[in-house]
């Protein structure tokens, strides 16, 4: 059997206010084509189809469209679970008849112990759960932490193991030793967030979701697929894609297939002048999303608006050398500061931040701005 392993679609996600629908639909189209080209026998989606528990109507429509395309139009069986971003209750709507078209969507812990038998494999679909759900299911209040609950879950799964078949686990958790990025929600329920890797050793392959990088975990027979789209600047250097898992080999083999973004996420560090003059540089795709760090020390009027004329998808703008807006007025009391003229305060602020005095032209701009502000206050 051959499966495509993907996860963390996060439909509805935005990148610093930018709509990522084009990026997500382009990634989906590539996933669909890979499934067709590789002649897979099924598609595994390891949780977080949505980005939030109450998705917008447009997000619901898009997920429905994607699942229908893969399952009803392309006739791929789908083996999916709910993640920590999904609403298990909402995602479960329609599941009683989904299996008639080989669309298996498990959203309750109890479903994890009913393996789906496909060819030479048993697939155990374990949705994201919190320790209290395991307490309720097993009627055991001693399951206080995630590692305790997961150990009990695996023990229960193993009771259904067919020794003549290979065993695949689909799960959505943080596994001990994994590396995270700032776009991921950490699991902190129960005081212990991680699932120990030794609980996974009895499975021939573990298809994981939750962490967004394929290299987050290097364990025998366990892999995160990562998200198909970059969701933060901390993912800028990640290669996005999916795993093709082949159970006909012994041990099971898995090969990573990269996806190409329609708009990439990148980091740029340079001077304002150099960045502005790059408009004619064909080696730079100005339509990508950028986190820009300026090397200039002096303030630049209207800097963001001017940079956006060259890089319309700037997501963050910062200064090199930890450029700070914090100013200390040593030796001056609060009363003395209140008695200072606005221009004097601005001169002090500028000098401490920029490490140099304002130029005559900058002082002129500042005086004009203060005058307009005063006039606005008078007319209010």
Automatic annotation (TrEMBL):
Source organism, top-level taxon: Bacteria
SUPFAM superfamilies the record matches: Metallo-dependent phosphatases (SSF56300)
Annotated GO MF terms: 3'-5' exonuclease activity; endonuclease activity
InterPro entries per the UniProt record, alphabetical: Calcineurin-like_PHP, DNA_Repair-Maintenance_Comp, Metallo-depent_PP-like, Mre11_N, SbcD, SbcD_C
Entry keyword Nucleus: no
One GO-annotated biological process of the protein: DNA recombination
Keyword Nucleotidyltransferase listed: no
Signal peptide per UniProt: none
Record domain Nuclease SbcCD subunit D C-terminal: where: 263-353
NCBIfam families: sbcd (TIGR00619)
Family, similarity comment: Belongs to the SbcD family.
Free-text function comment from the UniProt entry: SbcCD cleaves DNA hairpin structures. These structures can inhibit DNA replication and are intermediates in certain DNA recombination reactions. The complex acts as a 3'->5' double strand exonuclease that can open hairpins. It also has a 5' single-strand endonuclease activity.
Protein's UniProt name: Nuclease SbcCD subunit D
Underlying gene: sbcD
């Amino acid at each position: 059997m051959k499966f495509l392993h993907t996860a963390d679609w996060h439909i509805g996600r935005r990148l610093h206010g930018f709509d990522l629908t084009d990026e997500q639909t382009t990634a989906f189209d590539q996933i669909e084509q890979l499934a067709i080209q590789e002649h897979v026998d099924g598609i595994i989606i390891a949780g977080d189809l949505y980005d939030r528990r109450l998705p917008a109507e447009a997000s619901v429509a898009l997920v429905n469209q994607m699942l229908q395309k893969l399952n009803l139009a392309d006739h791929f069986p789908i083996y999916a679970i709910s993640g920590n971003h999904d609403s298990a209750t909402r995602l479960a709507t329609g599941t009683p008849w989904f299996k008639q078209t080989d669309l298996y969507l498990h959203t309750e812990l109890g479903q994890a112990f009913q393996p789906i038998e496909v060819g030479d494999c048993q697939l155990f679909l374990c949705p994201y759960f919190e320790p209290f759900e395991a307490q309720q299911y097993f009627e055991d209040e001693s399951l206080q932490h995630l590692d305790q609950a997961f150990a009990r879950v695996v023990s229960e799964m193993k009771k259904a193991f067919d020794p003549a078949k290979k065993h695949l686990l689909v799960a959505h958790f943080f596994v001990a030793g994994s590396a995270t990025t700032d776009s991921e929600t950490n699991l902190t329920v129960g005081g212990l967030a991680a699932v120990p890797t030794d609980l996974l050793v009895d499975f021939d392959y573990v298809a994981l979701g939750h962490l967004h990088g394929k290299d987050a975990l290097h364990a025998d027979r366990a892999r995160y697929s990562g998200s198909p789209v970059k969701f933060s600047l901390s993912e800028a250097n990640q290669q996005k894609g999916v795993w093709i898992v082949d159970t006909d080999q012994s041990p099971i083999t898995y090969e990573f297939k990269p996806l190409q973004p329609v708009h990439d996420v990148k980091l740029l560090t340079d001077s304002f002048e150099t960045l502005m003059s790059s408009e004619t540089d064909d080696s730079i795709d100005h339509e990508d999303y950028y986190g820009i760090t300026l090397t200039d020390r002096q303030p630049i009027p209207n800097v963001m608006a001017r940079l956006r004329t060259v890089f319309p998808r700037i997501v963050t703008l910062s200064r090199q050398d930890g450029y700070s807006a914090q100013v200390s007025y040593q030796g001056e009391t609060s009363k003395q500061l209140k008695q200072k003229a606005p221009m004097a305060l601005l001169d002090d602020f500028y000098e401490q931040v920029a490490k140099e005095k304002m130029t005559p032209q900058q002082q002129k701009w500042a005086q004009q701005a203060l005058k307009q502000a005063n006039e606005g206050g008078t007319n209010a």
